[in-house]
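Running this now, will post back.
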Amino acid sequence: MDMLNADLQLKNDALARKRSKAKASDEDEAGFHFIAFVPVQGKVWKLDGLERQPQNLGPINSSDWVMQVAPELESRMSQYEDGQIEFAILALVKEPLTTLVAALAENVKSIVSASQRLGQLKSDWEYFLADQSDGDSPAEQDVILGPCEQYRLDHEEIIRAVLGAAFKVQLETKEVSNLLALRQDLITAQARLRASIKDEAMAVQADNQKAASRRNDKGILAKGLLQVLERMGKSRLVLECDR
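Update: finished.
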């Protein structure tokens, strides 16, 4: 009889532990939620799914606002023991190709502005172009001065481009030689931008091809099936039939 009571007690203890674990699991699952950090109107905001309203983390005090968020992330990550993966970090950023095309649009607009300024100071400024070439820059006829489908650059993108404050100051000079040097630097920079756009476009195409091949790749499924069959003692039969 004592043995029976002991067995019943063990069973009850096991059920109690199981219920407690299930309850804790449910509570843990309820704690999984999204937290977002975003820069809005010069301030960094924390959007926590468990809080009633956004939390203002203060004004953006550097060009890299993410560094202001780092302590918040580190504090949350430090709550877990080493080896515990109870969180995931996802960054939403602009596509690199979009950023490069925007930079190219600003570059084109800057070159056109420099050319117009040169025209105001000296009508025959183009005769001095040969003296400015350093051999590494693209030929004058290859310089992009407007929309270009090859580099995904359209007219609207060029219009939206904003010229830098430092460039505007340089543009006010009355020294033709300085303007010619400035224009040549922009042309050299354009060559680098065009190369970067080509490289990024090729990388995007390669990624798309890999993604397409993964959707059609049945190798992972077949490998998983063979592992299941192997555990069932039937993989040898499948392999023999395959031969």
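Residues 23-30, 234-243 have pLDDT under 50 and may be disordered. More later if anyone needs it.
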